[in-house]
Amino acid sequence: MKIAVIQGPNLNMLGVREQQIYGPMKLEQIHQQMKEFADQNGVEVEFFQSNLEGEIVDRIQECYGDADGIILNAAAYTHTSIAIRDAISAVNLPTLEVHISNIARREEFRQQNMIAPVCTSSIVGFGPFGYHLAMVGMLQIFNEIRV
Ligand code: DQA
C-alpha cells in the first residue's frame, strides 16, 4: 500500500512562518515522523511539496494507478482551487485533508473550502499531530492497522 503526501504552498516554511499558528516543527521533521510510522506499519509513503497549483494537480494525477491514498494539505489553495478539487475527484482515491490550524476559527476568507467536499475526511486544528492522525486514518481505510 502506498500513501502520497502532498503539501501545498508555504508549508516548506513551517518552523519559520507564523509559529504562533503553525508551531516550531519543520516540514522535514513532520515527514520523518510519518515515514517512521509508515515503516512500522509496512506501508510506503512518498512526500511532495509545491508552491505551484499546477504542480499539485500534476502530482495528484500521478497518484492514479500508483498510490492507494492521498494525504493532502492544499494550504491556501484549499480556499480557491477548483483545479485541485477536480484533480482529487478525477483520481477517486481515499483522500484525507489536513490543516495544521483550525481553519473554522480563522479569517472569513478561510471559511470557503473547495477541497473538503471531495475528500474522505478532514483533520483540522491538531497542529502537526494532524498528519499522524491522517496516517492512522489512512491505515484504518486500508484496514491494515495493527492494534
Ligand atoms: C493551512 C491553513 C490555510 O488556510 C493556510 O493558507 C495554510 C495552512 C493549515 O495547515 O492550517 O497555508 O492549510
Automatic annotation (TrEMBL):
SUPFAM superfamilies found in the cross-reference section: Type II 3-dehydroquinate dehydratase
Domain of life: Bacteria
EC class (word): lyase
Site (Transition state stabilizer): 17
Catalytic site positions: 22, 99
Stored Pfam families: DHquinase_II
CDD domains for this protein: DHQase_II (cd00466)
Annotated substrate binding sites: 73, 79, 86, 100-101, 110
EC number: 4.2.1.10
InterPro entries documented for this protein: DHquinase_II, DHquinase_II_CS, DHquinase_II_sf
Listed GO MF terms: 3-dehydroquinate dehydratase activity
UniProt KW keywords: Amino-acid biosynthesis, Aromatic amino acid biosynthesis, Lyase
Catalytic activity: 3-dehydroquinate = 3-dehydroshikimate + H2O
Pathway this chain belongs to: Metabolic intermediate biosynthesis; chorismate biosynthesis; chorismate from D-erythrose 4-phosphate and phosphoenolpyruvate: step 3/7
NCBIfam families xref list: aroQ, PRK05395.1-2, PRK05395.1-3, PRK05395.1-4
HAMAP family: AroQ
Record-stated family: Belongs to the type-II 3-dehydroquinase family.
Complex and partners: Homododecamer.
UniProt function note: Catalyzes a trans-dehydration via an enolate intermediate.
Protein name per its UniProtKB record: 3-dehydroquinate dehydratase
Gene name for this UniProt entry: aroQ
